[in-house]
Amino acid sequence: MSKWYERGVFYHLYPLGLVGAPKENRESSVTDRFGELCQWIPHIRSLGCNAIYIGPLFESSTHGYDTRDYRMVDRRLGGFENFREFVSRCHETGIKVVVDGVFNHTGREFFAFQDILEHRENSPYRDWYRGINFAAGSPLGDSFGYEGWQGHFQLPCLNLLNPEVKQYLFDTVRFWIHTFGIDGIRLDCANVLDFGFMKELREHTRDMKEDFWLMGEVIHGEYGRWVNQEMLHSVTNYELHKSIYSGHNDHNYFEIAHNVKRLESIGSQLYTFVDNHDENRIASKLHDLRHLPLTYLLLYTLPGIPSIYYGSELGLEGKRTNTDDSMLRPAISITEIREFSSPLKDLISKLGHIHEENPEFHGGRYQELLLTNRQYAFARFHDGHTIIIGANNDESGAFVSIPCPCEGNTAVNLLNGEVFPVTDRRIGLTLPANQGVILKIMEG
User: Are residues 177 and 140 in the same domain?
Assistant: First the structure.
């Protein structure tokens, strides 16, 4: 039996933006906005999604990644009971819940940093941060120096070699599992986290909850360094993200196919996406919006664990600037989502259910069948069953003869029920302009 995350179809929520919470956390009391988030659960499930990645959630000062308290729900979103109710409703609906773990750095209001500000060398937390230097100041006027994440001194970097820091973070994960029943953690900045820390985290969480999922944010590098039996179950597949949009913009399916082949040994475990809270919306990246359905077709059928970023099912556009991410993280009402009707939203829902219902996509073997700049076909296999995917990014229809790598007499397009004969182990069909097919091979 496959793990829940191998069958996962994710919906990604950036909650502070979605609910329009104040940009700065200067609230004196808790405001429950999880009631609003709970209203999203039926919509998320209707898309075929069976998992939610929601975050950041820890109490923070501004955008969520400057943690103030690791064991509080951000008061701009709600309190303990509010989040516990959200997780409970998700679980009742068959949806797993994964939250952000921002363990590389804290905010300046975190208790350990505040203690060093007050007591300097005499602070018991003086070794909790990297690069502490009491002989120099910081660019923010502090009486000591320290390492800030990517030079951002609002985000002092934790010392993950310190046993006290590690134990504090392990206990924090245990707290979120035991208090709320979360099913996994996405490790922010996993590309710069200490490998020893991540190995110990895997050991600890293995005992905390069965099938607890560890996914890391990794942009560049050999993903196999992180994804293995000792460390993380998955990382963000930025390589496929890039190749999907540029492969369509350049009419170059070779780029996508090369990327898939390069990552073949770990591809089915990777967390795949076409946009997120840090990346411009896919509708703003594509040169031709007629390619939008194709990007989602490939997202759901290529090896990987697919994820939809909230609002992108509406075809939303959004670009970040050098100083502002807010366009990527807008407030959206559930009413707007419910009332919006479009072929894209319907397609994403159909793809979600196809992925969920067909184990060929849950880690099933991948095989390339046909490849040109503008046409691409591949197969996914599971337990003697085969599905063939074909895509055409050309402005005109294209006739293709796709090899069928298994026995079968007919091929049924799961997108619309159309049936094609399999003759001499080949399927001949015309792929319409900027469209694709998902063909289930059938006997008889």
Answer: no
Give the span between the Cα atoms of 44 and 307, in whole angstroms. 11
Pairwise CA distance, residues 360 & 366, whole Å = 9
pLDDT(1) > 80: no
Give CA–CA dist 11/41, Å, rounded. Answer: 10
Domain co-membership, 326 together with 407: no
Can you give the pTM of this predicted structure?
Answer: 0.97
Q: How many residues does the chain have?
A: 444
pLDDT band at 443 (very low <50, low <70, confident <90, very high): confident
Q: Is residue 304 within 8 Å of 10, Cβ to Cβ?
A: no
Give the C-alpha distances (Å, rounded to integers) separating 5 from 49, 181, 214, 414: 11, 16, 10, 23
Residue 444: the pLDDT is 60
**pLDDT band at residue 2 using 50, 70 and 90 as cut-offs:** confident
Alpha carbon distance 27, 74 (integer Å)? 10
DSSP letter, residue 36:
H
Q: Are residues 69 and 112 in the same domain?
A: no
Tell me the C-alpha distance between 3 and 145, whole Å.
45
Instruction: Please spell the DSSP secondary structure of 122-176, one letter per residue.
Output: G-TTTTSBTT-BTTS--TT--SSB--EETTEEEEEBB-TTSHHHHHHHHHHHHHH
Looking at the 3D structure of the chain, how many domains does it have?
3
Q: Which residues pair with 148 in a beta bridge?
A: 156
Rounded Cα gap, residues 356 and 2, in angstroms: 12
Tens-digit pLDDT profile for residues 297-314 = 999 999 999 999 999 999
In this prediction, residue 364 carries a pLDDT of 94
CB 331 within 8 A of CB 18: yes
148: number of Cβ within 10 Å = 20
Domain that holds residue 148: 105-159
Give the helix/strand (H/E) hosting 75.
Answer: none
**pLDDT tens figures, 391-418:** 999 999 999 999 999 999 999 999 999 9
